[in-house]
Amino acid sequence: QVQFVESGGGLKQPGGSLRLSCVASGIIFSLTAMAWYRQAPGKQRELVAAMDNHGIIYYTDSVKGRFAISRDNANDTVYLQMDSLKPEDTAVYYCNRDRQIAPPFDPWGQGTQVTVSS
């Protein structure tokens, strides 16, 4: 059974940093292009960053230079380092398969809340 467990969110002031983690199970992680998504209230789920099994990386324009995705295939974990946080980064963050490659798995995890506010 596919499962994603996200963690690491919290409340930060603008300019702060957070590191999100996501442990995946039930998939062949090392062969799967993984991604981080976020969903703010009243908005659609947005693809934020992705990394395939060859190390090719994608970032949406709004996070380029501030966020960094990485993965640990030995531990089926994908990370999102978030620096220079802005209020507009406030959202629930999820990990799943990169939808640019194939449809995300169901079910999604519970996500982790990131709130950026002074």
Overview in brief:
With 118 residues, this protein is mostly beta strands. It contains no helices and ten strands.
Describe the structure.
The structure is a single chain. With 118 residues, this protein is mostly beta strands. The chain is built from no helices and ten strands. It is globular. Strand 4 and strand 5 form a beta hairpin. The strands form two sheets. Strands 2-10-9-4-5-6 form a six-stranded mixed beta sheet, with no helix packed on it. Strands 1-3-8-7 form a four-stranded antiparallel beta sheet, with no helix packed on it.
List the defining traits of the structure above.
mainly beta; 118 residues; 0% helix; 6-stranded mixed sheet
Number of helices: 0
Uncertain residue ranges: none
Taking the sheet with the most strands, its summary is: 6 strands, mixed
Q: What is the share of helical residues?
A: under 10%
Average pLDDT, rounded to a whole number, is 97
As a percent range, the share of strand residues is: over 45%
SSE pattern: EEEEEEEEEE
Q: What is the gyration radius calculated from CA atoms?
A: 13 Å
Tally the beta strands: 10
Distance between the termini: 40 Å
Q: What is the global morphology?
A: globular
Topology:
Layout: E1 3-7, E2 10-12, E3 18-25, E4 34-39, E5 46-51, E6 57-59, E7 67-72, E8 77-82, E9 91-97, E10 112-116
Parallel strand pairs: 2-10
Antiparallel strand pairs: 1-3, 3-8, 4-5, 4-9, 5-6, 7-8, 9-10
